[in-house]
Design goal:
Blueprint: H1 3-10, H2 16-25, H3 29-38, E1 49-54, E2 57-63, E3 68-73, H4 81-93, E4 97-102, H5 103-108, H6 110-123
Parallel strand pairs: 3-4
Antiparallel strand pairs: 1-2, 2-3
Helix pairs in contact: 1-2
Length: about 130
């Protein structure tokens, strides 16, 4: 379980929307960095929501229209592979595709991340332009 999620729960907020709001207000630097490229339909005209609840999980970024989840993983995720696998399996069972990027890649190669997202979105049927 990630630390931001735990902090939200420690405050007594059990509702997913309250936890999501807390996470949006306390975004990590890589999340803020990628959000600057995703917000306002800047990638192929696709709308993304950040810190969006799906079942018991809160996803970093979600395109509801194209059923795409984008997760940004930090060092703690290397030790949480079983948790991430369960999470991905659940999201896929709900009809979502999941792509994961490391914090360092987001910070050092955001353009490459956006190109990969464009490729994935095109595979999902997005016809928009840059």
């Amino acid at each position: 379980m990630d630390q931001a999620w735990q902090r939200a729960n420690d405050k007594g907020d059990q509702r997913p929307t309250a936890r999501a709001r807390h996470l949006r207000n306390n975004a990590t630097e890589p999340e803020r960095h990628l959000w600057q490229a995703l917000r306002s339909r800047q990638v192929l005209g696709v709308r993304f929501n950040r810190q969006f609840p799906i079942g018991p999980y809160i996803c970093d970024f979600v395109s509801r229209e194209y059923r795409l989840v984008i997760e940004i993983d930090g060092a703690t995720h290397a030790a949480a592979q079983a948790y991430d696998a369960r999470r991905t399996a659940f999201l896929e069972s709900q009809g979502f595709s999941v792509v994961r990027f490391w914090n360092g890649d987001v910070m050092n190669n955001r353009d490459g991340i956006i190109l990969e997202l464009i490729r994935v979105l095109k595979e999902l049927g997005v016809k928009g332009e840059l």
